[in-house]
Design brief:
Layout lengths: L3 H13 L12 H13 L8 H26 L14 H8 L7 E3 L5 H7 L3 H8 L32 H16 L5 E6 L6 H12 L4 E7 L2 E2 L2 E2 H4 L16 E5 L3 H16 L5 E6 L17 H11 L1 H11 L5 H24 L15
Parallel strand pairs: 1-2, 2-3, 3-7, 6-7
Antiparallel strand pairs: 4-5
Helix pairs in contact: 3-4, 3-5, 3-12, 3-13, 4-5, 4-10, 6-13, 7-8
The structure holds thiamine diphosphate and magnesium ion.
Amino acid sequence: MVTAAKKSAVSKTVGTAAPKSAPKSSVRQSSVRRADKPSAKASSTAEFSKAEELDAYRRMLEIRRFEEKAGQLYGMGLIGGFCHLYIGQEAVVVGMQSALKPGDQVITGYRDHGHMLATGMDPRGVMAELTGRRGGYSKGKGGSMHMFSIEKGFFGGHGIVGAQVSLGTGLAFANHYRSNGGVCLTYFGDGAANQGQVYESFNMAELWKLPVVYIIENNKYAMGTAVNRASAQTDFSKRGASFNIPGEQVDGMDVRAVRAAGERAVEFARSGKGPYILEMLTYRYRGHSMSDPAKYRSKEEVQKMRTEHDPIEQVRARLLEKKWATEDELKAIDAEIRDVMNAAADFASHDPEPDPSELYTDVLR
Ligand SMILES: Cc1ncc(C[n+]2csc(CCOP(=O)(O)OP(=O)(O)O)c2C)c(N)n1
Ligand SMILES: [Mg+2]
């Protein structure tokens, strides 16, 4: 909980990631202008109304409680294979999703449960897929990294680091080709940002002015490797500079900053100006996957992020401070969400496994 003593730290985080000015000398004049304009606005964090704050609180808490439950089921041996939790990064997907319209698309890597819930996918179907049950989004045959929902515009869930970047660029190409006005949000990590296909994608996206927003979720680590040990350029907002793609750094722990940047970027892409890069400065609280004890960082480092920058606690503190909600009302929302996630876990634990005949269906031959 954010106490009064911590309030100053919380409010400071609003400006923590004040975007740097646009890349200068290495970028052509036209790009500097393009990159300058949105970046200049980036320092302002859009204020949320009471309804928006409450909605953000609820959506982020849904993801947190879902992930905590998934972690428990994994510990009980009900989830097999890999399971990468999104705890700590909730503001990124909740803020970005609020900038989208129906018909837009979302694609990401394997740390994908938060993205699915943010698009409106049913927690029961996601949880049941994690436990390999019939009621799961891929009939229990895909697991954590293989879920999709055409209806909600969610295109996976990809285990090959960086693969979703070229796929997301392809989705944007389809939007462009069909002139349907859609934008594709393509999420990837700081580690994935060093993959070669990312830059082939950047080139094509800018060349053809594709409606894609590249969201680099810089959570400071790629498995056990800290970002500065793996990346020559750790300011990922500059990674599009040689392709003339504008970029900005965003405080990914502040849902308001995320939404404001998301609206700018989505509008830019939708209006035919081409791709846009948003580097989200964020943090994952858990290890890389459930099997990672995260010994490469100190407990103090994690604790500091949790107490001073937690995305949910920031909203909660503002709601209480502005007297837009009481402790009891917020507790009631939490209890309601816990009930939904308990029911999802119950369903995912009791739903039957797929029939053996399903082994031969949905397989490309
Ligand atoms: C092509 C490829 N190389 C390596 C791996 C193994 N691997 C899985 S996750 C990961 C780290 C990626 O880190 P990042 O992009 O920062 O995403 P995060 O896990 O932090 O969300 C690696 C190297 C893989 N799955 N695919
Ligand atoms: Mg990472």
